[in-house]
Structures are given as C-alpha cells and as structure tokens.
Amino acid sequence: MTIFEKSAPGRKAFKLPKNDLEEVEIKIPEHLKRKKPLMLPEVSEPEVVRHYTNLAYKNYSVDKGFYPLGSCTMKYNPKLNEAVVAFEGFYGIHPYQPWESTQGALKLMYELKEYLCEITGMDDMTLQPAAGAHGELVGMLIARAYHLSKGDVKRRIALVPDSAHGTNPASAAMAGFEVVELKSTQDGLVDLDELKKHLNDEVAVLMLTNPNTLGLFEKDILEIAKMIHDAGALLYYDGANLNAIMGRTRPGDMGFDIVHLNLHKTFSTPHGMGGPGSGPVGVKAFLKDFLPIPVIRKDGERYYLDFNVPKTIGRVRSFYGNFLVMVKAYTYILSMGSDGLEHASKMAVLNANYLRKLVSKYFDIASPRVCMHEFVVDGSKFVKQTGVRILDVAKRLLDYGVHAPTIYFPLIVHEAMMVEPTETESKETLDHFAAVLEKIVEEAKTKPEVVKTAPHTTPVRRLDDVSATKYPVFRYKK
C-alpha cells in the first residue's frame, strides 16, 4: 500500500505556529501558477512514521545480512563514518561559503587526495566525479585531451576487454572514442596475441580492470603496460576491484596512467539505489595539466581551489563532488591506517577463496585459478542437469534471508553468478551461505518447481521483469 492510499481528507501531521510576520505580496506570473492543488497525501504523523518504518523493515541492506553482490563490494560500513559526517561543520557547510571559512573541508579533501594518490601510485587527482562511471568518463576525456594536445588526431580507438564492466565501453563512446572489444583467453584474462593484433597508431587507450570481473589478477600486466606504451597509447585503470589489492600493490606501479576509484565501494561508504557515490580520478604527472578544474592546492598552511590548470578538460561537476562521501572515505582511511587497509584486502581475498572452495562442491567455477576478492560460478552444467536457471537460484536465496549475488555477469560466462563476500564477513556467515546453496541445489534436483517459483516468503513475489522493462511506471497515478 502506498502512502497515497492511506490518505484521508483533513488529516495532518506537524502543524506550524501562526505566522506573526507582516505579509508581503509577491506577484507570480500567471503562467507559473499551479492550475490545480498539488497532489499530496493527507496523513497523520504516526501513520507517516509507521508507513516508512515498515518499508524500511522490508528493505534488505548490508546492516541486515549478507550481501555478496559481486563487483559491487557491499562491505559493512562502520558507524564511526556516519558519526563523523554528522558533525555540524561537515553536514552544515555550503559550497558558496568564502574559502576562508572552509579551510577545514579543503584540508580534508586535500589530504584525502594525497592518501588516494599514495594508495594508487598516482601523482595528482581530482575528487570531483560523482560516481564510478562519471570517473570513467573523466578519465577518457583526459586521455582524449592528451592525444589531441600532441596533435595525434588519429588516435580514436579505445580497447576494452569482453569481460569489462558495461560502463567502460559506454564511457569511452561518450568521450568520442570508437570502442573495439578484445576477446579474453579461455582463463578469462587479456589475450596478449589478441592485444598485439589490435595495436596500431590509432589506439588511444586500453581500459582495464585488475583484478578483472572474473576476480582474476592479470598476471601479464607489466607486459600489457609495455605493449600499450610502446604503441603510444595510455593505460586506464577501472578501480571497481581495488578492494582486492588496496595496500598490497598499486595500479601506478603496474604501469597505469589514469585511475578511477569508487569511494562508495573500496573506501566504505554505503551505496546502492543510485547513490550517493564518488569517483575520484588520479593521473600520472604528465597528465596532471589535463585535470578538471578546480583542483585543490596547498600554499603553506592555506588550502585553495586552483582554476589555473593549463590544458584542463574543464569543469565536470557543479561545486566539488559529493563532500560527505569524501568525509566517510577520509575517516575510513585514518581509522584503518596503512596496515589496516592491507589487512582488509588480504581478508577479502581469503574470504573469497574460502567461499569459492565451498561453493565448488555444488557448482562449477568459471576459472580454476585462485581468485582475488570475488569469483564467478558457471551454472551451465547445473541448468542442463536440473532445468533450474541461475536466476531461479538467486530468487530462492531470498527465501533464506540472503541477498542474491550478481547474476548473468560477466557476459562471457553463461548462467553466471558473481560472488563477492568482502572482508567484513565472518567464517560462520560464509559457511551459512554455502549451506543455503547446498539446500537449493538439492531442491533443484528433487523439487525444482519450488526453486523455479521462488521467492515465496518475500513481501513481493517474483516480478515480471520483461513487462517492467517494456512498460515502466515512473510515477503514482490515482
């Protein structure tokens, strides 16, 4: 039931005191006046509170249970982060304040930028991008501007592996590149022969995620970097999977020239439902003159926004990004320290490999290699044997109180299920997840209809995804 259906004429919640100020007549142009009253629900305060509290109970979150959403790094977010962003000086700040009164915020952003540069092996960074895909676009615009600044107008090709996140080719295309897909090896890694075949003086950049979307570390990364640079192109790092290597190795040391990060993944900010996010972009020294304006600089003890960037790609966002996401990331980095960040990565990899071993008893794993922070189930044989799809398994998991992993991605694995346990989950949680999968596999063999018609216990049963895609309803109609 929606809040509108609980509406009844005359019901009110909070009532403002009588206005004792002198009324001022404001002449509003007729064409701007509303022709009929605004449709708002009329409900009492208890009804409003109960309605949204009940909706919150129905929602699933990482605070409620295990959330192994592959590639999304749904780690538990320390409540310390939330406490810090509640400081009045952070949540009450306004971007139009004079810089003299925002020195604390500027210092925080400057130091965060420096920490992220150290973690990634970059020389300079912008914190402006509002999300990961936005960071990708900024990185691609920097790559394009770099080549154009050299008069290298032929370089219009962006190479993207077939296992990449879907936003990679989209971002490259939006930046004006022609996208060329690279086929992966049977193991799911970059095929060096395939890469060599595509390298020429028209290639501008290779977009790479390392570890990749199969959770595998690109063992030939140094050779890949050399091949790209020898061809006069740039190497771009998609930071979606940095959680596996944070504090252990750095993209900059692997040969990457441009890096985007997801603060709302690796650096512990709640994400989902569209945001908020933060997608900083770091660059090597030879690219820092192309960063979007303004950049944060320090002069003695004074922090300021510098608009004097010689070859800037321009402004990419209003103001300077999602500040409170930066505060949470800054808090996380300081509270963890360098040893803590490294330990988090090690635990993420340990958890993933432990769970991979358990799950491999019931499903095939897409790659036999030791994984990093996530692994991908290949359910092809399971589907042939039982007639139960991976989609059905994901829906049945909801009945057992577990959020489903990412399914049908990456596209190079048929009936894929991508599992990322993150470092914040206990052995008991991983054992429980594996036990639930074992039960579902047994159900698929003995009573498949139970799995095929799942979920059975959720507030809403299985949705008609096709109709929802073809005929979306974006607003409430009375």
Automatic annotation (TrEMBL):
Its EC number is 1.4.4.2. The glycine cleavage system catalyzes the degradation of glycine. The P protein binds the alpha-amino group of glycine through its pyridoxal phosphate cofactor; CO(2) is released and the remaining methylamine moiety is then transferred to the lipoamide cofactor of the H protein. One of its GO terms (molecular function) is glycine binding. It comes from Pseudothermotoga thermarum DSM 5069. It comes from the Bacteria. CDD domains: GDC-P. One of its GO terms (biological process) is glycine decarboxylation via glycine cleavage system. Belongs to the GcvP family. C-terminal subunit subfamily. Residues 20-288 form the Glycine cleavage system P-protein N-terminal domain. The glycine cleavage system is composed of four proteins: P, T, L and H. In this organism, the P 'protein' is a heterodimer of two subunits. The gene is gcvPB. Its cofactor is pyridoxal 5'-phosphate. The modification N6-(pyridoxal phosphate)lysine is found at K265. Residues 344-446 form the Glycine dehydrogenase C-terminal domain. It catalyses: N(6)-[(R)-lipoyl]-L-lysyl-[glycine-cleavage complex H protein] + glycine + H(+) = N(6)-[(R)-S(8)-aminomethyldihydrolipoyl]-L-lysyl-[glycine-cleavage complex H protein] + CO2. This is Probable glycine dehydrogenase (decarboxylating) subunit 2. One of its GO terms (cellular component) is cytosol. InterPro entries: GcvPB, GDC-P_C, GDC-P_N, GDC_P, PyrdxlP-dep_Trfase, PyrdxlP-dep_Trfase_major, PyrdxlP-dep_Trfase_small. Keywords: Oxidoreductase, Pyridoxal phosphate.
